[in-house]
């Protein structure tokens, strides 16, 4: 019964974390497989850890989505100590009274499902650091 | 010095549901309408640029096979929601370069009943997890890692503005939509011409907070086309043609320059701001000079940020600017008096020429009940997510 990360920039383990491809020349960070840097054009990258905590820079509460997507859910953009990350805001009611711009969040993992071989895919999300009333 | 380029003729079909017409029918209606409006024939046209995202390839040639196969170069263009503006820009460039006296730009789309434009459907979970694509994803990411739906993406763009510049109440976004729906009641070509109360808008079905259904662009069918002409050629045409010609004082297309986080949440601000700065400079026009603006209100959240991007207000001041009433049709800078994409409709490839049609019609004094009195200068803006931004400044002017 193994686990597999939903995306290859999610590293599972005792301290799950996100990693980025950082341009060794200009420091721009990316989550996808890179050919070159969109800021400076150089082609050398190194893998770096992304901060596990951040600030919610933007969000929406999605009520209508493609078939197979569970709604409603909170989609967010998180500033993790300077690295901008897309992810769902989880462990909070999908309601504007419970989600606010600028709130502190931290990375957490979210089970996605188990395949026919019994392997569980694990995704990630961001949860509020302090539960709000 | 390259010739100035003018709009000689322009046409927009009714937007809405055209059950018995395909995209080609609509494109033909727009193209022949623009030629008629210009007082020229297809044999006068030296270059064609055409866009239709959802139909078959080679839309330009398909169009020629209906309206005239004259052997001129046909450029088929695709630039998301900026496709129409890109077609227009191609025709303008060809005329400016001296390769043609006159060009025709056409955009057409069949979108009625298309529903929500979203990310990929999630496949039923069977088989085993196999990482694929540039993120090594074992499943489609829409809904698992944020959202790929357009209402959701543009909602986040509006909320990010609030993060940077201070709270924007749900009600403010809804009031923008209230304005555009109110404006649409004067536009007989709009897909929807119904006024909504603020309460109706806020209490309608939530699509992606803070965008409810009436705050989202309306999928519909439609087409628009324009004939452009170089100034030296225009001088040889009739008084009537010269009188109705509209000057293209600026024509600008940009793509999104790199900014931190722009590959996570699209940055539709920087490229719009850069296009606007270039356009104002090209035209020698200040934002204060604008008598009306058609901007890309694909969602109410988008309209707010573009007040700022187009420098219609002080940096960070979009909410105060809107709350002042400036963007209503009787305000200082009327925005989307056509009803905008939320009520006029958004047949993607047509949009970037349809907004030019709206401005040109006011500058010609032919906008009927919704005429902005004495309009002399207007700006049309579109965004294609990905991203492309088109900005055109048009002026009512006499040919020298
Ligand atoms: Zn770089």
CATH topology of chain A: OB fold (Dihydrolipoamide Acetyltransferase, E2P)
Radius of gyration of chain A: 16 Å
**How far is it from the N-terminal to the C-terminal residue of chain A, by CA?**
38 Å
What would the average pLDDT of chain A be, to the nearest integer? 95
Mean pLDDT of chain B: 96
Number of strands of chain A: 10
Residue fraction in strands of chain A: over 45%
Count of helical stretches of chain A: 0
Low-confidence stretches of chain A are none
Instruction: Predict the CATH topology of chain B.
Output: Peroxisomal Thiolase, Chain A, domain 1
Helix fraction of chain A, binned, reads: under 10%
Largest sheet entry of chain A: 5 strands, mixed, barrel
- Secondary-structure-based class of chain B equals alpha/beta
Structure description:
The complex is a heterodimer of chains A (133) and B (400). Chain A starts with a strand and ends in a 5-residue tail after the last strand. Helix content of chain A is 0%, strand content 48%. Chain A has no helices and 10 strands. Chain A has strands spanning 3-5, 10-11, 17-23, 29-30, 45-49, 53-62, 73-80, 83-89, 104-114, 120-128. Chain B is α/β, with parallel strands linked by helices. Chain B has 13 helices and 11 strands. In chain B, the strands form 2 sheets. A 9-stranded mixed beta sheet of chain B has the order 3-2-4-7-1-8-11-10-9, with helices on both faces. In chain B, helix 5 (170-184) packs across helix 10. The longest helix of chain B is centred in the N-terminal third of the chain and has 16 residues, at 23-38. Chain B starts with a strand and ends with a strand. Chains A and B meet through strand 6, strand 7, strand 8, strand 9 and strand 10 of A and helix 4 and strand 5 of B. The complex binds zinc ion (ZN). Zinc ion binds at residues 23, 25-26, 28, 37, 39-40, 42 of chain A. The site of zinc ion has 8 residues of chain A, from loops.
């Amino acid at each position: 019964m193994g686990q597999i990360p939903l995306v290859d920039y999610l590293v599972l383990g005792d301290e799950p974390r996100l990693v980025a491809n950082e341009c060794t020349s200009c420091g721009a960070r990316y989550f996808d497989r890179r050919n070159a840097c969109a800021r400076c054009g150089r082609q050398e990258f190194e893998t770096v850890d992304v901060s596990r905590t951040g600030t919610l820079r933007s969000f929406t509460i999605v009520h209508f989505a493609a078939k197979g997507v569970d709604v409603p859910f909170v989609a967010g953009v998180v500033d993790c100590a300077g690295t901008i990350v897309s992810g769902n805001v989880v462990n909070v009611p999908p309601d504007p009274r419970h989600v606010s711009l600028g709130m502190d969040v931290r990375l957490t993992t979210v089970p996605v499902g188990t395949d026919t071989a019994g392997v569980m895919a694990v995704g990630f999300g961001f949860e509020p650091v302090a539960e709000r009333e | 010095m390259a010739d100035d380029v003018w709009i000689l003729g322009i046409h927009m079909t009714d937007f809405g549901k055209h059950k018995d017409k395909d995209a080609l029918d609509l494109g033909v209606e727009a193209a022949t309408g623009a030629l008629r409006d210009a007082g020229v024939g297809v044999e006068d046209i030296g270059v064609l640029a055409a866009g239709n995202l959802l139909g078959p390839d080679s839309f330009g040639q398909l169009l020629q096979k209906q309206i005239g196969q004259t052997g001129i170069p046909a450029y088929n263009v695709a630039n998301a929601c900026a496709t129409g503006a890109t077609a227009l820009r191609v025709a303008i460039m060809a005329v400016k370069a001296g390769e043609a006296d006159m060009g025709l730009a056409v955009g057409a789309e069949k979108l009625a009943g298309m529903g929500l434009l979203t990310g990929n459907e999630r496949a039923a979970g069977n088989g085993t997890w196999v990482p694929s694509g540039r993120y090594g994803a074992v499943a489609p990411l829409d809904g698992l890692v944020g959202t790929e739906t357009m209402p959701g993406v543009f909602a986040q763009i509006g909320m990010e503005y609030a993060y940077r510049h201070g709270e924007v109440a749900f009600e403010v976004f809804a009031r923008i939509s209230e304005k555009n729906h109110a404006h649409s009641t004067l536009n007989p070509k709009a897909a929807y011409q119904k006024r909504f109360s603020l309460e109706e808008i806020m209490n309608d079905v939530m699509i992606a907070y803070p965008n409810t259904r009436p705050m989202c662009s309306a999928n519909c069918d439609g087409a628009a086309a324009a004939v452009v002409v170089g100034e030296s050629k225009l001088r040889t045409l009739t008084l009537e043609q010269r009188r109705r010609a509209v000057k293209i004082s600026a024509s600008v297309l940009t793509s999104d320059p790199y900014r931190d986080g722009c590959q996570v949440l699209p940055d539709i601000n920087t490229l719009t701001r850069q296009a606007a700065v270039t356009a104002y400079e090209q035209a020698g026009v200040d934002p204060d000079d604008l008598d009306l603006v058609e901007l890309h209100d694909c969602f109410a959240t988008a309209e707010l940020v573009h007040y700022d991007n187009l420098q219609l207000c002080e940096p960070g001041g979009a909410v105060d600017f809107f709350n002042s009433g400036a963007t209503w049709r009787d305000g200082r800078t009327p925005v989307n008096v056509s009803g905008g994409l939320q009520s006029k409709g958004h047949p993607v490839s047509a949009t970037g020429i349809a907004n030019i049609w709206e401005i040109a019609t006011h500058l010609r004094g032919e906008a009927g009940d919704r005429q902005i009195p004495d309009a002399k200068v207007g700006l049309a803006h579109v965004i294609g997510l990905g991203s492309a931004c088109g900005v055109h400044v048009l002026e009512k002017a006499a040919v020298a």
